[in-house]
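Thread amino acids onto this structure.
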């Protein structure tokens, strides 16, 4: 069986999603060299990190974090592009599994009850075929062993793309777009709310605000990447 797998890997090699080079047998999604050079933030180890501070005066998460820095043209942008626009759901799961290994050892994340990905509007979900934030959340679920909840938050309004919008216009674009279902299942729970990329944080803020209406709820935030200016 291994000989057959080796033969097919020669004909149809798995390629690194960032540099396009062939992956070695025990590499997955991204080659060791590219993985080594990914710009990790380490923010999960610091409750007062820049992502948490980004929401100061707006919302009060228990802790907010992102795995990578997102910059135009860097490897992280390529990873997110493959996940979001090229159907590479496995990229999201892979990154979630990796980051979950880091998070589960920390006291800040030890009391989590549920992982909730920021939902897409049904129209966008049908168009894309999946929710990229949910794929990241699936990876977190696998490595952290925390239940995944994809039904308690619903996106009730379709919105325009956030690209090229100002901070105020981004917030205006996502006001009141989320509805909470099954509220009784969220009472007194500690939720990890998950998104793909944080820019201004407007979408996460809107979703957080909707969830905050649930009695006793505590909310932490996590994303694949953050674009800091």
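Threaded sequence (229 positions):
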């Amino acid at each position: 069986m291994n000989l057959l797998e080796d033969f097919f890997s020669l004909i149809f090699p798995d390629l690194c999603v960032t540099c396009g080079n062939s992956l070695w047998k025990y590499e997955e999604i991204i080659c060791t060299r590219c993985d080594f050079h990914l710009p990790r933030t380490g923010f999960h180890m610091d409750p007062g990190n820049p992502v948490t501070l980004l929401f100061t005066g707006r919302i009060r998460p228990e802790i907010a974090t992102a795995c990578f820095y997102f910059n135009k043209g860097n490897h992280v942008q390529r990873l997110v592009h493959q996940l979001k626009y090229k159907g590479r759901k496995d990229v999201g799961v892979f990154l979630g599994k990796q980051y979950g290994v880091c998070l589960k050892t920390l006291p800040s994340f030890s009391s989590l009850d549920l992982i909730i990905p920021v939902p897409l509007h049904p129209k966008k979900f049908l168009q894309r075929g999946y929710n990229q934030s949910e794929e990241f959340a699936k990876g977190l679920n696998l490595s952290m062993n925390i239940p995944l909840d994809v039904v308690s938050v619903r996106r009730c309004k379709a919105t325009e793309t956030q690209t090229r919008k100002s901070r105020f216009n981004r917030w205006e674009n996502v006001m009141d777009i989320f509805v909470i279902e099954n509220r009784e299942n969220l009472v007194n729970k500690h939720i990890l709310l998950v998104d793909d990329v944080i820019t201004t944080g407007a979408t996460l803020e809107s979703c957080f605000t909707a969830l905050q209406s649930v009695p006793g709820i505590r909310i932490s935030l996590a994303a694949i990447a953050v674009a800091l200016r």
